[in-house]
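Researcher: Let's run the pair from yesterday's discussion. Sequence first, then C-alpha cells, for each.
Model: Starting with the first of the pair.
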Amino acid sequence: MKEFSIVIRNGRIIDGSGNPWFKGDVGIDGDRINRVGNLGQFEAESEIDAKELFVCPGFIDVHSHSDVSFFVNQKADSKITQGVTSEIVGNCGHSAAPITELGKTFYAKGYEEKGIDWNWSTVAEYLKQLEDQGIPLNVGTLIGHGNIRASVMGYDDRNPTLEELESMKKLVEEGMRDGAFGISTGLKYAPGCYAKTDEIVELCKVVQRYGGIYATHIRNQGDFLIESIDEAIEIGRRSGVPIQISHLKSKGRSNWGKARNMLRIISEARVSGVDVTFDQYPYLAGQSNLISRAPSWAREGGPECLLERLKDPKQRKMIEVEIPKSEDWHGPENTIIAGFAPNRSYEGKSLKELGNIRDQTPESVVCNLLLESEGVVPVVSFYGWEKDIRDIMTHHAMMVGSDGSSLAPYGVLGRGKPHPRSYGCFSRFLGRYVLKEGLLNVEEGVRRTTYFPARRFGLLDRGLLRKNMFADLLIIDAEKVVDVATFEDPHKYSKGIEYVLINGKMVIKNGNFTGILAGKTLKHVIYNN
C-alpha cells in the first residue's frame, strides 16, 4: 500500500515562515500535507523529483479583481502560471456580492457583455455558484463598500440617512456571516468617493465584531496621499478593525519621495497600537477606467448620468477643465489605452497619440472615448518612481497583491493590452527583486507571499509548508523565474514555476496545465458570534 498520494523528493524547502530553507521531502495525503522530512523509506502513488528546485507554499494574492473572471474562463491561466493558488477578491470597493436589485442596475451591463448569468445576491449564493461550476484556485471575498452604498442609496453624493446607514450595516453583517473576510473601499471611485469617514467607521465597527479586516483603496494616492493615509489609520483607530492599505504607492513626479514619509506614519501608527499593513505590486504604472478622470460631481448618479452630462456642451466644458486635476493625470503621453471595443487599433496608444490622430485636445479625447464606448475605457497610467517601489517593498508591513485579475491569452479575457501584473506580479517580485537583486532574501520573499498574507486574512490552514496544512505547493526553478508579460505585449505567461499543486492536486506539471479544477471557496471563520 502506498503511504502517500504524492511525494516531492530532494527539494530545497522554504516553509513560508521566513526560516532558512532546508533539504527534504514532502508527503501529501489527499488535500493535506502529511509529513515533511526524509521520506526515503515511503512510497507514493506519484513522485516528483525536486532536486535543485525550491519547494514552497502557493502564493496568496490578497488583492485580486478576479470576482467574475472564473465565470468567463475557469482556468485562471494568468494567475496560476505565476504561482498563485489562493485569491482574495472584492477589492477597491467592488465585489460580486452582496448586491440588491437596485445595486445590480449599475453593474448589470458589464456582466451581460461578458455573458455572465448574474443570479446571485448574497455572498453565500456567490460562493456557492463558484463551487458548483468549479474553480481552478482557492477564492475568498471581501464585501465591496461600493456595492453596499449603490444597493441602498445608488450613486447619490450625500450622507446616508440613519435608516440607510442601518440598511448598509445589515448588508455588511449578512456578508460577514456568509463568510466574507471583511469590507473594502474604493474611496477614489464612485459611489465610494461620496462617503465620509464617519460612514466608513460605522460599517467597519460591524466588521470588527466578526473579526474581519478593512482593505482600502485610499481616497487619494497623489497630492493628498498623506492625508488619505491618515484617514485610513483614523478609521482603524476608531473602529478597532485591522487595516489593509491596498496597493500602496506614491503617484506623480511631484509626489516622488513621499513613500518614506507615509511609511514612517504607518510605522508610528503600529507602535501606537493601530493594526495596519499593506500590499504592493512592483510596477511603475497602474490600471483603472478612464471614467475616474472625470470629477466626482460628474460621476454622481452612475455612468449613464456622466454620459448625459458629457452630451451637454456646458457641463462637458466644465468636465474638460477639471480632468487635468485628477490624481491620475500624469500627462497625456503617460496614459495608454488598454481596451477600446469600438476601435481596437486604439489599444496600446497614448492619449497624446490619439489627440494627434483625431486632431483633438487630450481632454476632448477623454470625453469622446467615454461617449463612444459608453463609459468603458480601461487605461494604464505611468506615474511611479523606482526608489519609492523599493522603499515600500522593504518595509516590514508589506505583502504582495497584484491588483489584477485572472486573464488568458485567448478568448474574451485575451483582448486588449491590460496591465502585465495579471500575468507577472508574483514572478516579477520573486524573480527580479528577490532572486536576482536580493532586495529581500528568498525566505523573506516567500514569507511575504505566503504565510504573512495567510495570517493577515485568517487563512490558518494555508501559507505554511507544515503537517496538516492544505497542500497548496509550488516547485520553482530559481534560475528561470521571470515575468514575461510587458506593457506592449501583456498576454504572456510567467516562467519558472514548474509545478503547482492546489489542495493536493497537480494543476501545473512540468510547466503545463493539467486541466484540473482543484480550487475551493474560502470562508472567514467567525468566533464568538
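Model: Moving on to the second of the pair.
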Amino acid sequence: MNESRLVNRHLCMLVGLVVAALVLVAPAAAAPPANDTFAGAVTISALPFSDTVDTTEATTDADDANANANCGAPATEASVWYAFTPASATNVSVDVSASDYSAGVIVVTGSPGSFELVTCGPGSVGFSAASGVTYYFLAFDDTPDGTNGGTLQINVSEAALPEAAVTVDPTGLVNAHTGVVTVSGTFTCANADFAFVDLTVTQRVGRFTITGFGSVLADPCDGQSHPWSVDVTGSNGKFAGGKANVDAFMFACGPVECATAQANRTIRLRPK
C-alpha cells in the first residue's frame, strides 16, 4: 500500500470516529410533555395547585380544536391538559399569566367530541365548580405567531369571593351658579378585578324633582376603606342648597361573581 492511500485511509477512519463521537454526545430530541394530550391530563387532587412545564415541544390536536369550538381563541398551540374534580362546590381560579409567553385557558366538561365549554380567556379565568364534576383545563399558547410555547406557569386555587361596602357623607357641596353638587363618602372593596360606585341624587325644588347621576371607580380594591367624591349635574335642572337624597350603589366584580352594596341617605347641601 503506497503512502497516499495509507494517509487517506487514516483520514477516513478519523472522520468516522469524530462522527461517531458526535452522535454519541448529541442530546436526545426533546419530547412533548406527558400531559400534551387529553388522555394524559394531569390530575389535580387538591387546591392550591401549581405546575411549571416546558411546552416548547407540546402539540395541538383535534381535542384542542373541539374544546376551543365555542371559545374562539386565535390559536391553541403548545397545549397541555389538567383535570380537577372538586369534592364539594367551590369557586375556582386558573391563572397562567406568569408564563413567559402569552397563554390562555379553556375549561370544559364532558369528553372529546362532546366537550361543553365552562369558560375561557387569556391569562386567567374563574368559574363556579359543582361537587363531583370533572373539569378539564386546557392551557395553551394563544398567539399564532410561529413560536411554540415556552415555560408555562399554571396556578389553580379557590377563588375568594369579592367584598363591597359603601357609605355616603351627611353633607355635600353645591355650586350656586352652576347647580353642580359634590357628593362624597367611603368605599371598601376586596377580591375584585374592578369596582365602581353609581350615584343617583334627587332634590325637590318647588313642584319639581331635580335628578342627577354620577359614577366613580372604586380603586384601590385592597380591603381598606377609601374616600370617594364625585360631581353630579342635574339632568333636568339645577340643584340648590338644602336637603337632597343620595342613592349609592356599588359593584365589585371578581373572576367568578360580583358583590354589591348600597347606601341611601338624605344629606344637606351647603354652598361651596
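Researcher: Give me one sentence on the second I can quote.
Model: Residues 14-28 have pLDDT under 50 and may be disordered.
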